[in-house]
Specification:
By secondary structure, this protein is of the alpha/beta class. Helix content is 29%, strand content 21%.
């Protein structure tokens, strides 16, 4: 059984606070799921600054663009219309791609051996595409938790519009985003 999947957002906090939260949650691998791993407003969370800080705390850093947000739907794509937020709608569609499924599979494999967290910029889990990644984990029988801050960890629950009755798959409305 894999370790639970953790999600965390860096926001505007000091880098040390993020590292403390990860350390307190026993994370040994941080997978950066920002499509573009940099930040002009918060340069402490750019890949070049983040990676050595994490290494100093014994946490390996990986970037996986395939799990990144900031996606767009092709014109005329009507899938996942149950999402009113266009970003979530586009990400749900991206989850159906081979690239996303491969990256998610590698995330799951890594969790077989160690505690893994996925990182994005948004601190609030339900306002970030991490929530869809965590939904896929839960739908596949994998525990997921959202790290809110140092020592503050909450179990991830499927959020509307996810169908909690679909076994082994993640549905948003009539459309299937992921099959375990």
């Amino acid at each position: 059984m894999p370790e639970p999947l953790l999600t965390i957002g860096h926001g505007t906090q000091p880098l040390e606070r993020l590292v403390t939260a990860l350390t307190m949650a026993d994370v040994s691998l941080l997978v950066d799921v920002r499509r573009f791993p940099g930040s002009r407003r918060n340069p402490q969370f750019g890949r070049e600054a983040l990676e050595p800080e994490l290494a100093g705390a014994g946490i390996e850093y990986r970037h996986d663009e395939r799990l990144g947000g900031r996606r767009s739907l092709p014109p005329g794509d009507t899938r996942f219309a149950v999402w009113t937020n266009p970003s979530f709608r586009a990400y749900a569609a991206h989850m159906t791609t081979e690239a996303w499924r491969t990256a998610f599979g590698l995330l799951h494999e890594a969790a077989e051996e160690r505690r893994v967290a996925v990182l994005c910029a948004e601190t609030t889990p339900w306002r970030c595409h991490r929530r869809l990644i965590a939904d896929a984990a839960v739908a596949s029988g994998w525990e997921a938790f959202d790290v809110i801050g140092p020592g503050v960890v909450r179990r991830h629950a499927l959020a509307p519009p996810a169908d909690p009755l679909a076994v082994g798959e993640l549905r948003y409305g009539e459309d299937v985003a992921f099959r375990a």
